[in-house]
Amino acid sequence: MKHTxxxxxxxxxxxxxxFSLVAAAxxxxxARWEGAAVPTALSRCGIAFAASLTLCLAVxxxxxxx
Length: 66
Description:
By secondary structure, the chain is an all-alpha fold. Helix content is 88%, strand content 0%. Keywords: Membrane, Transmembrane, Transmembrane helix.
């Protein structure tokens, strides 16, 4: 194991979380722009966050296995 592996892993996780936060913020803004109530918009925001984080982590796992 290289000494830089934990640092790169943490960096990749931080990028995945930040990307998911941006996707969630965009989903919230689009839901509010559509006229949805705040609880509905927050629900869509949470779903977008969970879906994008899951997708990012799945891609990282697939890249690690190659």
